[in-house]
User: What shape does this take?
Amino acid sequence: MKSDIARLDPIILTGAESIEWYHRFIETGGVNIKNRILKYNEDDCIATWVLLEGIHKLPLLQSY
Assistant: This one.
């Protein structure tokens, strides 16, 4: 999965920027903008999945 993280789109770097791109899409209906948003969301989901897999691999701590 490491290669998946390397392909993250550097054009949209934050969630706030994705919201700006969404507003641009609503205003213009631009297909390229829509595709960038979809790509950003896909990459965000992949990154979240990688994080989740890492958390699942952590040892459980015993609480007493």
